[in-house]
Amino acid sequence: MEREKKGIFFYLLCVVTAIVYGLLLELSKNVVAGWVVSVVAFALFIFIWKSKLRTSKWYLKLLEWAGLFVVLAIIYYVSYPPYARVPAVSNKNPDSTDIVSLEKGDVSGVFNEDKSVEVYAGIPYAKAPVCELRFKETEEAEAWEGTLVCDHFAPKFMQSENSTLWDSLVSIIFYNSFNWFDLDDNYREAMSEDALYVNVWKPAGDISDCPVIFYIHGGSLQTGSPSYDQYNGEAYAKRGIVFVDFGYRLNVFGYFADEALAEESRNNTTGNYGLLDQIAALKWVNENIEAFGGDAGNITIAGESAGSSSVNAICASPLTKGLFRRAIAESSGIVANKPYHTFRDYDEALEMKQTVYDAMGVSSVEELREIDAKELIKAAGEYNSMTVDGYALIEHPALTYQKGENHEEALLNGYNAKEADVFTILGTKVTSDIYLEILKENFGDQAEKIAELVPAGDNPKASYNTVMSVAWFAYSHNVWSRYMADEGRPAYEYWFTKENKGLSTNHSGELPYFYGNLYTQPQNYDESDYELSETIMDYVVNFAKTGDPNGEGLPEWQEFSTDETQILELGNEVEMTTDIYLELYKLIDGAQGK
Predict the structure, then answer these.
(1) Hey, which residues does 301 pair with through a beta bridge?
(2) Which DSSP category does 150 fall into?
(3) What span, in angstroms and rounded, lies between the C-alpha atoms of 492 and 567?
(4) Start-to-end C-alpha separation, the chain
(5) Which of 27, 384, 412, 431 is most buried (CB neighbours < 10 A)?
């Protein structure tokens, strides 16, 4: 009887260990070989154990268990998912498109599953910014011979990475999304400095003069990838839009500034390499998009988060006049007198250089260019801001807008209801006792009035989140829309309030609605979400075509007016509503010195 109990306990322990280890393999996306070898390892372990069950001493049994864990650890390490490029389409063995001739050479792409869309992923728009080209202005891509097969996205640009296990847990906890036991995702997305490539989605067949949306991905100017499925361009291509996105330099590679770099530059510039990449990609679209059926005279630039801040910078840059017509900006901007993120003073940018030199143990630009990218990325933490470099940006964007010298003819922009919440989860604990002091750190002599308008109440952290959501995100869109209204240019502002089981109304929660990709996380959405997504995309298509989002069957989206202060709520209902933060904007204006 005692022996039977020990046997039952042994098998239960084996089952628990196998389940935990299987979950570890699945969450880490280990390759199939790891599963196969681990099953063999468990089988051998059980065989060895059973053969010695009557005679083995306890310390020998313990040693055998230790041996099993060592073997499993080795299997986990050896079968860790490899780096690979992301396929351009999700359907397997896609058909190839006809050849498209561009200025630098020929390309071919692939069809989506129903052959309604052609995708061309990984077309070079610039030379790889490596070796002597690291920390230099974007260089035009070289021509190639033969036909470039564009059926996979290029690697994402160099950036700090979490483990696949951590990323999987984040997907489950924050996104309520994870592809369980999917054999198609057992890899990590390839990453490289050689990442300056564009991706094009177009309606299938022989088309011409289609509106173009040029999309800039977010990620705090530190992370992100144009292959991310939440802004896949297939849905817009099905609606007659040629959709483009691309990779650009990030973090220390994209926004490092040094006087020595400015001196060696032909344009006396430093600190905005990522922004210059974006502008180079936009120029590439102007020169090549007609080959894909797009209208180079009807380009709308779009972006979310840091991509939206980049849109704001492109609108203010003297280098982009005439390269686009309209702008779509989601959840960020740098047009406030004192932008809260993704922008910094030039002097501050220059002062930060020493942290990189100290971290790398070097003292010159030449030495910095010789450092392996994976090592240099360790110094990338604070490099998440553009600056006034005298070339890409010749003055603070607010000054450009005050002069009316920004380039967008029309603006569609807005923010989500709970923008700041995901950024303050691990931040300072906010209590009623320190609520006012925290506000003073951010808003100076306007803090007391802000505390009266948004009191700490029973949930001071929620009140703090509300204030910071407005300051960090909503405020910049109100300022941007005000500038447009003062210039007599149309601006259409939205407020996204649609709750769901995913990111809901938190930062970037609107993305799958705007780009028609709710289907990638079907467990998080119901019919009302799909209906809202269709409405939003109708607005965006109309705006990309004409500069006016309104159209037949859509609730009226009125132009922003500083008198009426109405914005469009995108929620359970789609209707014009009074912006609830008007008084708070005025107080932030005061803190900004306006």
Answers:
(1) 214, 327
(2) -
(3) 7
(4) 84
(5) 412
Mean pLDDT (the chain) is 94
How many whole angstroms separate alpha carbon 197 and alpha carbon 135?
18
Model's pTM, two decimal places? 0.95
Alpha helices, DSSP H only, in 114-268? 164-175, 234-237, 251-255, 259-264
CATH number of the domain residue 263 falls in: 3.40.50.1820
Beta strands in 194-260 (DSSP E): 197-203, 210-216, 242-246
Counting the structural domains of the chain, the total is: 3
Most confident of 3-7, 111-115, 174-178: 111-115
Active site residue 305: yes
pLDDT digits (tens, 9 = 90+) for 383-399: 899 999 999 999 999 99
pLDDT tens-digit map of 78-97:
999 999 999 999 999 999 99
Catalytic residue among 28, 38, 225, 305: 305
C-alpha span between 290 and 293 (Å, rounded): 5
Whose tokens are 């299987």? That residue is: 22
CA separation for the pair 352, 362 (Å, rounded): 15
Task: Assess contact for 410 and 490: CB atoms under 8 A.
Answer: yes
Backbone φ/ψ region at 183: left (φ over 0), alpha (ψ -120 to 50), beta: alpha
Same domain, 99 and 196: yes
